[in-house]
């Protein structure tokens, strides 16, 4: 019932505003809780860029009061949303790659904006488009080239692209994994091997793949699914973070709705046969600020070390609010082993 309700709420047209009060009976406790849901579907997702000096400083208070890229910056497209920013630093220039959903085609494309925190960002147009939905443009370097693995679930495969003329032109190299509706593929190289986290469209499942080579040979981890039926923590939420020898997975909180918050999960065991992660005690690290462009939630993070500081990009929204009878506490963010 709740799933059907949230699907209905997600489908509300722009401009609709309402307040719903639901009475939920908790049979085991014999109590009644009130769930008040305020939907304000009259606004949008925006993207920001920021700096922090240490990972301990990563929190919602570090996020700027004004975003760097908003829907109004996107030209020539009937914009539905912008989301999923990743960046590549080239000298003093930060190249932002992100999803733009075209309302006309109802599909996502990969767009580019370049600039800096100080100078602002200039929209440079679409850099990758396919006859199916694209999002989550994970850009990274390996073997002397710059690569991109975007989400392409409608193609039924995880697809690899290489930059022919960075940052504007990309060529398809091949499918890495086939036969599923894979979302938010997140590759990383660690201890001489390639690894890749992958979510699914339920938002509640997390799988892991590994390979000795980027371009081929990907194998499903025997512990899959690492997480199942847990939208609080499962879906990947951005680039892997390595700090002082510790490796962190970025995960989304997609409950009670997609785009609620972002948390970090330290990976303490990673091998071809075993996996174990532990959530940070201070999760979520990014959540709604309660005001402004990211008032109601944040759902993506790309944080990279620049030598003397961390540079990050993230997205957030003020499109709706969910107020629950019992405050949410990430209680389901348990250790996975």
Can you describe this structure?
This protein is mainly beta and 337 residues long. It has 2 domains: 42 residues, no CATH class; 275 residues, Glycosyl hydrolase domain, family 43 (Tachylectin-2, Chain A), CATH 2.115.10.20. The chain has 1 helix and 23 strands. Strands 16, 17, 18, 19 and 20 form a 5-stranded antiparallel β-sheet that branches. Strands 4-5-6-7 form a 4-stranded antiparallel β-sheet, with no helix packed on it. The longest helix is centred in the N-terminal third of the chain and has 9 residues. The protein is globular. It starts with a helix and ends in a 14-residue tail after the last strand.
User: What order do the SSEs take from the amino end to the carboxyl end, as H and E?
Assistant: HEEEEEEEEEEEEEEEEEEEEEEE
Name the poorly predicted regions: 1-42, 320-333
Remind me, CATH topology of the largest domain?
Tachylectin-2, Chain A
End-to-end span in angstroms?
Answer: 31 Å
Q: Helix and strand layout, with pairings?
A:
Elements lengths: L1 H9 L6 E10 L4 E10 L4 E8 L26 E12 L2 E10 L4 E10 L3 E9 L6 E8 L2 E7 L5 E9 L3 E10 L3 E9 L2 E8 L5 E6 L7 E2 L20 E3 L2 E8 L7 E10 L4 E5 L6 E2 L9 E9 L4 E8 L2 E4 L14
Antiparallel strand pairs: 1-2, 2-23, 3-22, 4-5, 5-6, 6-7, 8-9, 9-10, 10-11, 12-13, 13-14, 14-15, 16-17, 17-18, 18-19, 18-20, 21-22
């Amino acid at each position: 019932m709740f799933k059907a309700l949230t699907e209905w709420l997600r489908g509300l047209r722009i401009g609709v505003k309402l307040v719903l009060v639901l009475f939920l009976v908790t049979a085991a406790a014999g109590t009644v809780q009130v769930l008040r849901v305020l939907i304000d579907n009259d606004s949008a997702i925006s993207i920001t860029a920021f700096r922090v000096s240490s990972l301990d400083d990563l929190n919602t208070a570090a996020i700027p009061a004004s975003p760097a890229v908003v829907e109004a910056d996107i030209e020539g497209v009937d914009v539905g949303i912008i989301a999923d920013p990743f960046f590549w630093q080239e000298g003093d220039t930060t190249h932002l790659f992100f999803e733009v959903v075209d309302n006309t085609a109802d599909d996502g494309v990969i767009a580019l904006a370049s600039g800096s925190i100080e100078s602002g960002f200039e929209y440079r147009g679409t850099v990758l488009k396919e006859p199916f939905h694209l999002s989550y443009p994970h850009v990274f370097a390996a073997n002397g080239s710059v690569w991109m693995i975007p989400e392409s679930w409608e193609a039924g495969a995880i697809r690899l692209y290489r930059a022919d003329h960075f940052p504007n032109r990309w060529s398809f190299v091949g499918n890495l994994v086939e036969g599923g509706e894979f979302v938010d593929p997140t590759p990383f190289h660690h201890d001489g091997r390639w690894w890749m986290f992958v979510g699914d469209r339920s938002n509640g499942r997390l799988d892991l793949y590994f390979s000795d080579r980027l371009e081929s040979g990907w194998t499903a981890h025997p512990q899959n699914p690492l997480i199942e039926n847990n939208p609080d923590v499962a879906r990947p939420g951005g680039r892997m973070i390595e700090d002082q020898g510790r490796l962190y997975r970025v995960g989304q909180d997609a409950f009670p709705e997609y785009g609620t918050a972002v948390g970090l999960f330290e990976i303490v065991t990673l091998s071809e046969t075993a996996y174990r992660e532990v959530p940070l005690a201070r999760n979520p690290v990014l959540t709604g600020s309660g005001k402004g462009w990211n008032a109601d939630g944040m759902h993506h993070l790309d944080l990279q070390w620049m030598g003397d500081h961390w540079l990050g990009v993230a997205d957030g929204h003020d499109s709706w609010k969910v107020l629950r009878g019992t405050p949410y506490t990430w209680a389901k963010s348990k250790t996975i082993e």
